[in-house]
Amino acid sequence: MKKTIVTATLFTFGALAFSAQADMEGGKINAKAEFDKHCAVCHPGGGNIINKAKPLGKEALAKNGIKSWKNIVAKIRNPGPGMTKFDKKEMPDKEAKAIAEYVLKTFK
Ligand code: HEC
């Protein structure tokens, strides 16, 4: 029992150290790591496990009027039903923009 707790604690610290590292890559935002951390739970591979009708592919987004990184940032700040809201404190504008651009160029 005790061993399990120690292992779990070590794992948590390891994961935290890893995500802090992934945040910054030579001072630049690692958009893929940020997407994996904040968005991939619900949008693995650009899909949408909660609302299958709203994946993150470029064409699917365009059909809903989402055509630029600004439109995606607007969704991050003020999402539809079922999506987590990320405010500026949790996700600064620079980071939200980097994730938005990553989404546009990654998912077809
Ligand atoms: C808790 C699950 C969850 C998380 C986390 C999440 N999303 Fe979503 N996302 C959803 C759901 C559900 C919808 C559909 C909402 C609706 O009906 O408008 C959605 C919709 C979207 C849309 C609009 C799609 C469209 O066609 O209208 C975009 C863009 C988007 N998410 C991007 C992101 C990004 C970028 C992140 C990470 C910063 C993220 N999401 C995190 C669940 C999530």
* Number of separate structural domains: 1
The biggest sheet amounts to: 2 strands, antiparallel
Distance between the termini: 47 Å
> How many β-strands, per DSSP?
2
- Strand and helix order: HEEHHHH
Please state the CA-atom Rg, rounded to the nearest Å. Answer: 16 Å
The average pLDDT value, as a whole number, equals 88
- Write down the CATH topology: Cytochrome Bc1 Complex, Chain D, domain 2
Strand residues, percent: under 5%
Structural class: mainly alpha
Within the largest sheet, what's the order of strands?
1-2
At the first level of CATH, the class is Mainly Alpha
Overall spatial form: globular
Indicate the percent of residues in helices: 40-55%
In short:
The chain is mostly helical.
Structure, described:
- This protein is mainly alpha-helical.
- It has one domain: Cytochrome c-like domain (Cytochrome Bc1 Complex, Chain D, domain 2), CATH 1.10.760.10.
- The chain contains five helices and two strands.
- A two-stranded antiparallel ribbon has the order 1-2.
- A hairpin with a 2-residue loop joins strand 1 (24-25) and strand 2.
- Helix 2 crosses helix 5 (93-106) and helix 4 (69-77) crosses helix 5.
- The longest helix is centred in the first third of the chain and has 22 residues, at 2-23.
- The protein is globular, with a radius of gyration of 16 Å.
- The chain starts with a helix and ends with a helix.
- Heme C (HEC) is lined by residues 38-39, 41-43, 48, 50-51, 54, 56, 60-61, 64, 66, 72, 75-76, 79-84, 86, 99, 103.
